[in-house]
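forwarding from the other thread:

> can someone predict this with magnesium ion?

sure thing
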Amino acid sequence: MDESSAYNIRKSFSFFSIADAILLATLFLFLCLLCSCKEAGQQSSAQKAREDDPVTLTDTVMGTVAQATLYGVGKERAGQLLERVKELETECLSGKLDSAEVSAINARVAMADGEGVEISPELYKLLQSCLQISGDSLGAFDVTLGRLCRLWNMDEIASGNARGMVPSDEEIRRAMDHCGFEKLILLGENRILPEPGMALELGSVGKGYALDCLHEMIVRWGSSEDRAGVIALGGSIMTFGEKAPGIPWRVGIKDPDDSGGIIGYLELYGENYISTSGDYERFFEQNGERYHHILDPETGYPARSGLRSVTILAANGFLSDALSTACFVLGAERGMKLADQYGAEVLMVNEEGEILLSDGMREIFHAATP
Ligand code: ADP
Ligand code: MG
């Protein structure tokens, strides 16, 4: 190798080295920029969720007011939660909207063909759970009361679309002929056999069940310590997570005698499901008597069990909602026993205005100071 070729090689080598260095540096810079952008992006969406905190939403769903206060969730996902509740109502649970599966089943059963009906696995599972509560409450809780509920028409009366009027004994008797949980047979493999003429009515569990579906949705988003919130669908409430370290959720218990007032509140941590059934939610008065929307399947009339309201704290939304209705119909003593059987905590307000508490409820209930 002569001098010049050595020079050329060195020169070409050094030229390649400078270009390479510039290229590498540019690449490095570009990568750094990309990473920092990505980090900044991640940070900004996490920050954004925090900056948005809490997201508060109010809407009308399932014939009631839905309210949510959500931390670490962000506006978009918060909106998805209430959309899901609407979807459950319009696609599955409603007995009024033609688009819903329950309405379609009722229409088909009304045709009285006496054939088994195939339903969605979700609804089948829900009905299974309902029938279990019916059995355990000796029929006090019954989702086959559709005909009776339609006759009393409490939803329309409460929303001001109809005038409250006590049906005749004959009308009540005829409606009751098509009610009774033992007339709904689960055949297995998502097939049910309802007695012809019967109608399903899931108003007693819809909101609680919807809370369970929302919880499933939140779990599917993946774990996050930051996520917390309280969602109320009318009288059914779910709490989850911690809004701040050591700070409990406070859930007010309505005063049956004062629509704006509370008798006290529950102090709760983490995940909880609370439902209240009361005679003050939907009712009308005739000749000085109050007729409300929780019916006693034995009489066909609004339940007169000596209670004004029942609040249940249970392991899931379905259970808290179903038990609050069941215990209201059963009354204090039998209601307490049923709730205990399911490991649920109870607060009852009786007609004398006394507050009755299960042992666990006593620890978390704080009476309002007058
Ligand atoms: P709310 O719907 O006000 O939260 P509940 O959860 O107690 O109150 O459910 C009451 C609704 O359940 C009624 O509006 C009616 O549709 C239905 N229902 C009435 N009586 C019964 C009963 N004994 N068992 C099951 N469902 C009932
Ligand atoms: Mg209920």
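DSSP finds eleven helices and 16 strands in the chain. thats all i got for now
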